[in-house]
Design goal:
Pathway: Steroid metabolism; cholesterol metabolism. It is found in: Mitochondrion. This protein has a single domain, classed as START domain (Alpha-D-Glucose-1,6-Bisphosphate, Chain A, domain 4, 2-Layer Sandwich). The chain is about 30% helix and about 30% strand. The protein has six helices and twelve strands. The strands form two sheets. Strands 1, 2, 3, 4, 5, 6, 7, 8, 10 and 11 form a ten-stranded mixed beta sheet that branches. It has a two-stranded antiparallel sheet with strand order 9-12. Helix 1 packs antiparallel against helix 4.
């Protein structure tokens, strides 16, 4: 996140990662049933039954359905942005193989895509980044706290996040109110999210409320080693406030690298 950019959440430039066409096919398989209003996706509806819809035996309120659909749509839009391979520009290449690319999308603005390989399984990363998201402040100093406000089924949550006040942070503290939605299979996980507005939880005094999304993180096991995972993170954020976009666009990719560094450190302690 820009502190919270670490939320949750390039043509693949390294040989050990799968091609973007592979990402496209897997994305379709994973979220197909989540977008049944689109005829193309409806054709593969049967592939994702138990991963895409809330359990039929569990009563779901109108509020829960609203959050679930909001999260699904955010994930669909974010994956669609990644599927379009045209126009990406390399911003940063690290010696460890991490690459960040950027692209300006009409109506959205500049988005950033990080590609990395992490020494962790899909299950481990899903657990840290979604199931135990409230613990993120313990290993990511950019986050002051994340609180799950609502649980709309096992795959969808509403969170409030506050970025930490850190020395040298020219952007300043922000808070975020977001819906986060996940789809998980044995060899991959998709974590999507977007800002949401709730009358019951207005912007907090002392913070600028930023808005993220649609954004997503895609985690896929490497074919040759299931203890390692490819990590693709689309960062799409409006931090609000008065700072020029040129300055913000310099800071956001560095924030992605910082988050990945903290995540690697946390994984090394297992």
């Amino acid at each position: 996140m820009m502190p919270a950019v670490v939320k949750l959440c390039c043509g693949i430039s390294y040989p050990h990662l799968r091609s973007m066409s592979g990402l496209h096919r897997t994305a379709v398989a994973v979220i197909g049933q989540e977008i049944t209003h689109m005829k193309h996706w409806a054709q593969i509806k049967h592939h994702m039954g138990k991963h895409a819809e809330p359990k039929t035996e569990v009563a779901v309120s109108e509020d829960q359905l609203f959050y679930i659909q909001h999260g699904k749509e955010a994930l669909r839009k974010a994956v669609s942005m990644l599927e379009d391979r045209d126009g990406w520009k390399v911003e940063i290449k690290e010696n460890n193989g991490d690459v960040i690319c950027s692209k300006v999308i009409p109506g959205t603005g500049k988005v950033f895509r990080l590609e990395a390989v992490l020494e962790a399984s899909v299950d481990d990363l899903y657990d840290l980044l979604f199931v135990r998201v409230e613990e993120m402040h313990q290993w990511n100093p950019s986050v002051q706290h994340i609180k799950v406000l609502k649980q709309a089924g096992p795959e969808t949550i509403v969170t409030h996040e506050v970025s930490a006040e850190t020395a040298g942070n020219f952007i300043g503290q922000r808070d975020f109110l977001s819906v986060r939605h996940s789809c998980k299979q044995k060899s991959s996980a998709y974590l999507g999210g977007a800002a949401i507005r709730l009358e019951s939880f207005p912007p907090q005094a002392g913070f600028v409320r930023a808005e993220d999304g649609p954004t997503c993180i895609i985690i896929k096991a490497l074919d040759e080693d299931t203890t390692k995972s490819s990590f693709t993170w689309l960062l799409n954020m409006d931090i609000k406030g008065w700072l020029p976009k040129s300055i913000i666009y310099q800071g956001l990719p560095r924030t992605q690298l910082d988050f990945t560094r903290h995540l690697r450190k946390r994984l090394s302690l297992r």
